[in-house]
Amino acid sequence: MHSPHDPYDPYVRVRGAREHNLKGVDVDIPRDVLAVFTGVSGSGKSSLAFGTVYAEAQRRYFESVAPYARRLIHQVGAPKVGEITGLPPAVSLQQRRSAPTSRSSVGTVTNLSNSLRMLFSRAGDYPRGAERLDSDAFSPNTAAGACPQCHGLGQVHRTTEELLVPDPSLSIREGAIAAWPGAWQGKNLRDLLDALGYDVDRPWRELPAEQREWILFTDEQPVVTVHPVRDADRIQRPYQGTYMSARRYVMKTFSDTKSATLRAKAERFLTSAPCPVCGGSRLRPEALAVTFGGRTIAELAALPLTDLAGLLHGGSETARVLTEDLRSRIAPVVELGLGYLSLDRAAPTLSAGELQRLRLATQLRSGLFGVVYVLDEPSAGLHPADTEALLTVLDRLKTAGNSVFVVEHHLEVVRGADWLVDVGPGAGEHGGRVLYSGPVAELASTEESATARYLFDEAPGPAREVREPRGWLTVGPVTRHNLRAVTAEFPLGAFTAVTGVSGSGKSTLIGELTEEPAGVGRLVRVDQKPIGRTPRSNLATYTGLFDVVRKVFAATDAARERGYGVGRFSFNVAGGRCETCQGEGFVSVELLFLPSTYAPCQECGGARYNPETLQVSYRGRNVAEVLDLTVEDAAAFFADVPAAARSLGTLLDVGLGYLRLGQPATELSGGEAQRIKLASELQRGRRAHTLYLLDEPTTGLHPADVEVLMDRLHGLVDAGHTVVVVEHDMTVVAEADWVIDLGPGGGDRGGRIVAAGPPQRVARAEGSATAPYLARVMP
Ligand code: ADP
Ligand code: ADP
Ligand code: ZN
Ligand code: ZN
């Protein structure tokens, strides 16, 4: 027997966890295992894994490395937990709040760029007589490496005759040069040309080519004396003016003007084109003169990682060591189904799931051991064909001597765990207890567990009748990213699932559905982008519910007596809000070396309002307390306020009853943001035929939540609308009327429609990576 304070105790022991909805949780989890946290949305999994275990590890770390950070720790608050023993240092790989900066790329996120630069610096082939370059000289983000022409941007703005002169049948006097400024300035330029001897009355297209070239593009700025002709009855004196070509004028305005309107006008006459000096590679010529295996670093960075790995072989000893290191670091990225990405791919164009898996692959080489990794649904965006590889990677982290704690819903990942912590049974107030903690198989006897019902009951649901489409929507031919003239047909009035491995082209295909397509009244994209980027937006502001709440408060007797209108109850305008935090409830704390963090405002304690506003209450609660209610409690509280009840009802319908009304947008996961958007769409009750597009709507959802969501989506189709989802969850795909399977692989190995048809048919399709997994769940 080990006691909690025994240093050899192999367990992380949590006692009295009360973060968020946790009800004094006690749980013991072995170290050095893959432990999976399960439970319905809002049950408290993240509060336990991230809010308690990870937060406590981080707090201890801060205290040990940065004593000056104590004040911050004090402000941010330690997790509400009695005690945790046996806790190793923690590393978190979380999806929410991990927005990368625009200059980062796959290469920088994985550190592979550094290694590739090292390879070029040390083992590249240099032109005869050239000096060896430092590895910095191969980075477009350093002064040493950036192309001097475009400053490392890879693009330059240029203009063309077609843009500057849209209608060549006009003469200069008639306004042929559309890019010229209006009024006096434009007239002046015309008079200067006239004085220079150009014919300003001939149609533009009849002017000799070299004249047109000079007028539009010259870099000369001749000073000319203009002798104005008698203009009606005004007599002007001769004056001197400086001519400036149309290009010069546009470029100057674009780069110098402070007026947004002028800048926008100038931009209409510009196109961006790859920089002529570096060809878009962003690097200076000296760096591009160096090659490895006959290719420049820019060429290698543009290749899919799978292909790059195939080219990295060393001749010299140095090259051998460096290429081996690179290949061994690319391997886990490829294993995690991301071999179609290239190093130069900009990080902001990656999905949250892709980014997390990249970070995960990178961790494999960090050489850390004895830490606990805390992950948030690493299967997000992953095709079932790649789940096995994910488990292998997690297993390797564990074998290297670490603990791996993951919050997951994907049943294959859950089955692969060594240890399971099931939280529940319900969401919010109805959850917050650990129902089971132990090996996976023994969960079966835990009756209360929603997870147990899905994990052990493998019988497919009853067969659904496939709907007859009301018509077809043709999309394409699409040639974009890896799609080559792909044409897809989407059935109208039906439910379509788009499937395929990561990188096969699913998002690219449905991204084409942007215009209001013919035959459809409206297109509604319900994506996972945040509903707001600051703590100022939350679900109440997003859905319009907060407008109703403010009206309710303004209508109370107390508010009327004090003359408080609806604006008084807003935290976004001065008046009722706390001025210290300007209604954010939080202040941002900047800390040396660490990412900036939000800490509760010391003035209002996070309430967001000033004390006078908080004196007004409605049925015993002030506005801050109302914002603190969960959707579920608010639904009871506002049951007799129809406008509020309606929007709260739709939020309950999509399984968000556990969210608090004022929960800042920055704290919501992608899946939650998506369901909020869906709810506010449902609330509008559209009558016109609408096409709803959803990208992996089951992300973050327990199978029990998926069932609820599917009921809503089928309800939309039954009401005559069209639903298209990108999905990896085969139980959802099996319930669709139509499946479009892309692939067969990712990147250049994909981009085709491998199969299309009702799920029964696609489940039998040859050469489809999806078919075997779909077949398993078909009734
Ligand atoms: P899960 O990870 O199981 O989906 P969470 O741990 O995120 O659940 O949420 C559990 C409960 O705690 C929910 O009722 C949720 O609204 C609440 N909660 C989550 N984050 C916060 C927060 N930052 N402040 C207060 N309550 C929160
Ligand atoms: P899926 O949605 O099936 O995961 P995507 O449509 O995102 O696939 O990607 C298909 C291909 O297009 C991949 O090779 C991917 O790297 C490429 N791709 C996707 N988005 C971009 C982008 N913004 N810039 C460049 N390439 C992209
Ligand atoms: Zn350049
Ligand atoms: Zn404040």
Describe the structure.
With 779 residues, the chain is α/β, with parallel strands linked by helices. It has five domains: 11-98 and 350-456, P-loop containing nucleotide triphosphate hydrolases (Rossmann fold, 3-Layer(aba) Sandwich), CATH 3.40.50; 106-154 and 276-334, ABC transporter ATPase like fold (Up-down Bundle), CATH 1.20.1580.10; 157-274, ABC transporter ATPase domain-like (Helicase, Ruva Protein, domain 3); 459-530 and 675-779, P-loop containing nucleotide triphosphate hydrolases (Rossmann fold, 3-Layer(aba) Sandwich); 539-667, ABC transporter ATPase  like domain (ABC transporter ATPase like fold, Up-down Bundle), CATH 1.20.1580.10. The chain is built from 30 helices and 25 strands. The chain is globular and about 95 Å long. The mean pLDDT is 89. The site of one adenosine-5'-diphosphate has 16 residues, from helix 1. Keywords: ATP-binding, Cytoplasm, DNA damage, DNA excision, DNA repair, DNA-binding, Excision nuclease, Metal-binding, Nucleotide-binding, Repeat, Zinc, Zinc-finger. Its main location: cytoplasm.
Structural class label: alpha/beta
Regarding quaternary structure, what we see is single chain
How would you state the average pLDDT, rounded? Answer: 89
Strand order of the largest sheet: 5-10-11-3-12-13
CATH fold-level label of the largest domain: Rossmann fold
Number of domains: 5
Rg for CA atoms = 31 Å
Strand content: 15-25%
Total count of helical runs of at least 4 residues:
30
DSSP strand count: 25
- Ions and ligands: adenosine-5'-diphosphate, zinc ion
CATH superfamily of the largest domain: P-loop containing nucleotide triphosphate hydrolases
Tell me the span between the first and last alpha carbons.
49 Å
Q: How would a textbook summarize the main sheet?
A: 6 strands, mixed
Question: Runs with pLDDT <50, length 5+?
Answer: none
Helix content bin? 25-40%
CATH class of the largest domain: Alpha Beta
Domain ABC transporter: 466-769
Protein name: UvrABC system protein A
GO cellular component, one term: cytoplasm
GO biological process, one term: DNA repair
